[in-house]
Every structure is written in C-alpha cells, then in structure tokens.
Amino acid sequence: QPHPTSVQASNNNYQLIFYSASFVSLAATVAFTVLVPAHARTPAPAAPVPAPGTPAAAAAAAAGPAGGLRELLSNVRSLGGDFYRMLGVICLYGMGHINESLLEARAMEVGFGKAEATLVVAALAAVTFATAFPLGRLDDKYGANTTLAVGVGALIAGDLVLLLSGPHPMALFASCIFLGVHWAVIQ
C-alpha cells in the first residue's frame, strides 16, 4: 500500500518510468558517440617468453605455482607506502559513497511510490550527463586536484542533505544534484 502522501505522478506506470529513465541513457550514448573523438590505441608490448630448453624456461617450469605466489607477494611488497595510502583513501571514499539503490529506498521512505522512486536514478543520470562536460573543462583548465575537490565536496554535500533533510521529498532531488556532480567527476 502506497504511503498516504505518496507522489503518484505516473500512477505507478512502470513502463512509462523505465522509458523515461532509458531516454537519459540514450541521450548520453548519442552525445558520447557524436561529441567525443576516438583515440588510437597502441597495444602494450607482450612479455618475452623464454625459449624452450633455455635456463630461463627451466627456471620458470621449476618454480611452478609456488614461484607464481612468491612473485605475487614480492610485487605486493614492492608497491610501497603511496599505494597503500591511496588504498586507504579509496576505502574511506567507499564508506561515504551513496549508490542509486539507497537513493531509491530514501525516495520511498519520504513518500514516493515505487515507480516514481525509479526516477531518482534518472535524475541522477541526467545531472551526471549535464555536468560531465563542464567538469571536464574545469579539469583541463585547473587540473585534477581542483576537479577532485569539487567531486568530493559534492559527495559530502549530497550525503549531508540526505542526512539532515528529514522527510522532505525535494531534498532528495537536491541531493541528486550534488551526487550527480560527484558521479560526473568520478566517472
């Protein structure tokens, strides 16, 4: 049973909702295809394979699976402190990241019907689509640190709006604006 204050703009017409949401994806795909130039890729050089009968081939065969594990552990140790600090930052980021499923659940909590809650994902995608190019220009002009600061600031603002907004449906869309900017930066 829908919440008494539920926004029933589509009368829970899922087909209409999904067509509306897919329009945003289609528009983004067309824009990407038309506006983003293709770049030629150069293949990475293949690792040399030791010739059969050579000492290198014999050593590789003798090492077997344990040799591969030793090499893996050696590679992990050689990554250094910068890698592990970066990994720690990524873990902290992951704890603050809000995905679209949580936004849909919040939409239903504040009174949207199940079908209308799906529009939250479309709104998020629309904001991401609309802000990706300007944020790319910002990155080109001021560098990755500035763009990253904007993206992290938008994530924090979006999370705070969700945390402090209470049962106000429009706050959900304000959060989508901030989180869409964040998604445009990280994607």
From TrEMBL:
Pfam families per record: MFS_1
Family annotation (InterPro entries): MFS, MFS_trans_sf
Listed GO MF terms: transmembrane transporter activity
Keywords, sorted A to Z: Membrane, Transmembrane, Transmembrane helix
Transmembrane segments: 16-36, 117-136, 142-163, 170-186
Taxonomic superkingdom: Eukaryota
Keyword Transmembrane: yes
Record protein name field: Major facilitator superfamily (MFS) profile domain-containing protein
Native source species: Tetrabaena socialis
